[in-house]
Amino acid sequence: MTQFTHYPPHGDLGQKTMAESQPVVIASDQTPIPVTVVSGGSGTQVDTYSEALAVASNIVTTITTYIVPVGKTAFLERISFSGGNIALYRTLVNGVNVDTRQTYFGGELCNSFEFNGSSDGLGLVAGDQVQITVVHQRPTVADFYARIQVTEK
C-alpha cells in the first residue's frame, strides 16, 4: 500500500528560501501586472551628449567630457559613439586611457563602451573627468558624436 503525505495546496506562503518557493503560472489572458523596477541603489541618471563637427584627419579630438560634481560620486555605465568615418575612439578617466574601440571599413560606424557588467559601473569621485576622444585617418573631414551615461549619487 502506497502512503501519501498531504501538504497544504500552496505550501507555506511565508517562504524562507527560494528552494521553498512555489512556481507560478500566469494565464495568457491575464490583465497586465504592475511592476516597479528598482535599481541597485538610488541616484540620478545623467547623460552628457556632444558633437565634434568637421574633424580633420589625424587630429586627436575630444567629443565630449563629463566631470563628477563636487560633493557627488558617480558610476560610469556606458558611452555610445558614432561618426562619419572609420576611427579610433578612446575613453580617458583623468587623462588615463581605460578603453579603446576601433570602427573599421565595412563595419558599423557606431559602437559603445560598457562599464556596468555585473556591478553599478566604474566608480568615480568628485572632480574625476571622463573624456571620449576620436582620431581618424581618412582624407576628408567628418562629424563624430558621443554620449556619456553615469549615475550620480
Short description:
The protein has 153 residues and is mainly beta.
The count of β-strands is 9
Using only C-alpha atoms, the radius of gyration works out to 24 Å
The stretches of 5 or more residues where confidence is low (pLDDT under 50) are 35-39
Average pLDDT for all residues: 84
CATH topology: Jelly Rolls
User: Which sequence of SSEs, written as H and E, runs from N to C?
Assistant: EEEEEEEEE
Indicate the CATH class: Mainly Beta
> What's the domain count?
1
- Count of helical stretches: 0
Distance between the termini: 65 Å
Largest sheet: 5 strands, antiparallel
Structure classification:
mainly beta
Share in helix: under 10%
Plain-language structure description:
With 153 residues, this protein is mostly beta strands. It has a single domain (44-152), classed as Jelly Rolls (Sandwich), CATH 2.60.120. It is 0% helix and 46% strand. It is built from no helices and 9 strands. It has strands spanning 44-55, 61-67, 73-83, 88-93, 96-102, 110-114, 122-125, 129-135, 142-152. Strands 1, 3, 6, 7 and 9 form a 5-stranded antiparallel β-sheet that branches. A hairpin with a 2-residue loop joins strand 4 (88-93) and strand 5 (96-102). It is extended, with a radius of gyration of 24 Å.
Key traits:
five-stranded antiparallel beta sheet; four-stranded antiparallel beta sheet; 0% helix; extended; Jelly Rolls; mainly beta
Topology:
Layout: E1 44-55, E2 61-67, E3 73-83, E4 88-93, E5 96-102, E6 110-114, E7 122-125, E8 129-135, E9 142-152
Antiparallel strand pairs: 1-9, 2-8, 3-6, 3-7, 3-9, 4-5, 4-8
